[in-house]
Design a protein that fits this description.
mainly alpha; globular; disordered N terminus
């Protein structure tokens, strides 16, 4: 993992951002491979994430509470609780609807973020934001039309995960915290572990051995490594550019699912996905 003091060129930063996006997209792949429940997957992921991020912070000589006030701790715990709900609903959507439907349901989170920000800061949604909401609604209807009731349930779980993540984004914006992004991520994963470990101990102890491999991939590759690359790349590219790259996460996830599992998306899913992704890009480019 790269030291935070290394200065990147724009091309190197974009490359790292795309690698991070691919790794984020692989979360759905590993979740699909796990036989365990969504709650057990999230708990196992957090276990490995806390360990990997903790070691990374030790290497960077970062201390968990250095420069952190009580309000910052409360904010991080709140965002961790919301992330717990987000990850559980996301993997439940993957389990029920498959990778394409689950990830496209989540892809509408920028619209939720814009909506919640307008509410939190007393701003009326602009005409452009209403248009993006209509695009998302139309896209989700296209995705849901030809599928079974179980797949539609998966889509609804994905949408719920997007809504919760929109709240996370608003909470993170309001947190006044002197911690680095990596240490903040460690605190959030510690909260996830605290929320789920007491009720997931039995399920974790009886999880198939292969699931532990996927838990490790989720925690180390899709969280610690991906988040480190993401944070590191922000030193050389703008947040808006990063958001556009991150919007490609469902595209990478669907392509990987197509290659690995033969999950070929149908025409309605592709059309709906283009509408959802188009709406996300409109939000990132006001």
């Amino acid at each position: 993992m790269t030291s935070p003091h290394v200065h990147l060129s724009r091309n190197a930063a974009l490359t790292r951002m795309h690698v991070a996006t691919v790794l984020f997209g692989m979360s759905g792949i590993f979740g699909q491979l796990c036989a365990s429940s969504a709650m057990t997957i999230v708990c196992g992921r957090a276990l490995f994430s806390v360990t990997a991020l903790g070691l990374l912070c030790l290497w960077r000589h970062e201390k968990p509470c250095q420069g952190l006030r009580t309000s910052g701790i409360v904010g991080l715990i709140l965002s961790g609780v919301l992330l717990t709900a987000h990850f559980v609903t996301f993997f439940q959507g993957i389990k029920l609807g498959g990778i394409a439907i689950g990830t496209l349901g989540f892809a509408c989170f920028p619209v939720f973020t814009a909506l919640f920000e307008s509410i939190a800061y007393g701003e009326k949604p602009r005409a452009r934001e209403w248009q993006t909401m209509l695009m998302v609604a139309a896209g989700l209807c296209c995705i849901a039309m030809p599928d079974t009731a179980i797949a539609v349930q998966g889509l609804l779980w994905g949408i719920l995960s997007a809504g919760i993540y929109g709240l996370v984004a608003v909470v993170n914006r309001r947190i006044s915290c002197a911690l680095s992004g990596t240490m903040a991520c460690w605190w959030q994963n510690m909260t996830i572990l605290g929320c789920l470990l007491p009720c997931s101990l039995s399920a974790l102890s009886s999880a198939p051995p292969l699931d532990w491999l996927w838990f490790g991939c989720l925690g180390i590759l899709c969280t610690a490594l991906a988040y480190s690359l993401y944070i590191n790349s922000l030193t050389a590219i703008k947040a808006r550019q990063a958001a556009i790259v991150i919007s490609l996460e469902p595209v990478y996830a669907i392509l990987m699912a197509w290659m690995l599992f033969g999950e070929q998306p149908g025409i309605p899913t592709i059309a709906g996905g283009l509408l959802v992704l188009g709406a996300a890009l409109r939000v990132h480019n006001p």
